[in-house]
Amino acid sequence: MSDTYDALVLGLGAMGAAATYQLARRGAKVLGIDRYAPPHEFGSTHGDTRITRIACGEGPEYSAFARRSHEIWRELEAETGLDLLTQNGFLAISGAGNRSANHGVEDFLGGTVAAAEAAGVDYEILDSAALRRRYPALGVGDGDKAYHDTVSGFARPENCVTAQLQAAAARGADLRLGETVLSFRQQDGAVTVTTDKQTYHGAQLIVAAGAWLPAMLKPALAANFMITRQVLYWFRARSEAAHAEFAPERFPVYIWQLPAPQSIYGFPATGGIDEGVKLATEQYDVATTPESVSRAVPPEEVREMYETYVEPFFPGLSPVCVRSKTCLYTWVDKARFIIDRHPDHDRIIVASPCSGHGFKHSAGVGELLAQMVTEGRKPDPRFSF
Ligand SMILES: Cc1cc2nc3c(=O)[nH]c(=O)nc-3n(C[C@H](O)[C@H](O)[C@H](O)COP(=O)(O)OP(=O)(O)OC[C@H]3O[C@@H](n4cnc5c(N)ncnc54)[C@H](O)[C@@H]3O)c2cc1C
């Protein structure tokens, strides 16, 4: 006879690790299960860095999660000694003429300003002269302008997952890694999860399966989600002097609505010149699955990225791509999150807060998920199925 848990958590990536930690912190008896050993490179939570912003151009409903995540990460840094959060500032850059949308938002700069006003975040607006003076690494055009704040920056996704799993285990959470969930069901006021190794019983289940989620839902629910392949690139600077312009002390994270098909986002250099400078665009045109996605990045794809998005806008970066990685978005229309009880099973919570901008919110979302289990807290209806 196996144990009965207060909560089972399916998936220990960004969201599941956060939920498991928050449940354990509240004294709940919790079991977390993952098919791999997070952090790993098969889902959505890898690649060294994630932008974090409290003023979110995607909508003011997200700010409280990011703000709370910053607090939780600082607490976890003190507990674990791991580096989780760097607040080196954020630029939302745009300008006149045809500009790419970001996360489906046409005026991302304007949306960011509105969110900053709503969340009480101090910011300034920089014109192209100020941008060129402060950030020579960016080849901004005449008339470009930017929102800038100093509370934003980047989180370390792998370390955040590690810290939360460590802290959860230290508080008594059971973690089963390398174990694949085959099915789950709700029956007689309880939830049963069957893995390739065992069957578990719990009062409630949180499904935080990332890109694997749609395959676990009936077609009408799965139709909410689209899995897309994304590529991260690290390009080498042309010289040590050019690399130094990307140092986190002087260079922020940014999202840039380009006069090009996609916006671009990127980070300061987090290592030496040979480790390159990370940047990426996004694509929403081709759907994939975690099983069928092509994880290789062929040279033609690197060349196209460099010629279209890097060379025209980053004069200090060379065509040498020192590293690339593929990663998966679980996209919902209008860049929405879904955090809701399963429409047919009230003891099963579905957590899909991704749409390409979920990481910054993950620690706060984990707290919400734990409160849904332990206190019956209801999420914002904007996150419903
Ligand atoms: C390229 C890229 C860049 C991004 N940039 C940013 C950014 O700058 N800022 C930001 O805020 N967000 C960003 N995001 C979004 C953010 O990273 C994701 O929203 C977040 O990491 C998703 O976490 P998750 O827990 O939902 O998924 P995952 O971390 O993928 O976790 C899902 C877990 O479920 C497990 N699992 C699945 N099926 C099973 C099963 N059957 N049995 C057991 N375990 C299972 C998997 O192994 C996995 O560990 C980015 C995402 C990508 C891909």
What does this structure look like?
The chain has about 375 residues and is an alpha+beta fold. It has two domains: about 5-45 and about 155-225 and about 335-385, FAD/NAD(P)-binding domain (3-Layer(bba) Sandwich); about 85-155 and about 225-335, D-Amino Acid Oxidase, Chain A, domain 2 (2-Layer Sandwich), CATH 3.30.9.10. Helices cover about 25% and strands about 30% of the residues. It contains nine helices and 19 strands. Strands 1, 2, 9, 10, 11, 12, 18 and 19 form an eight-stranded mixed beta sheet that branches. Strands 6-7-5-14-15-16-13-17 form an eight-stranded mixed beta sheet. A three-stranded antiparallel beta sheet has the order 3-8-4. A hairpin with a 3-residue loop joins strand 11 and strand 12 (about 200-205). Helix 1 (about 15-25) packs across helix 9 (about 360-375) and helix 2 crosses helix 9. The longest helix is centred in the first third of the chain and has 18 residues, at about 65-80. The chain is globular, with a radius of gyration of 21 Å. The two termini are about 35 Å apart. It binds flavin-adenine dinucleotide (FAD). Flavin-adenine dinucleotide binds near residues 43, 51 and 280.
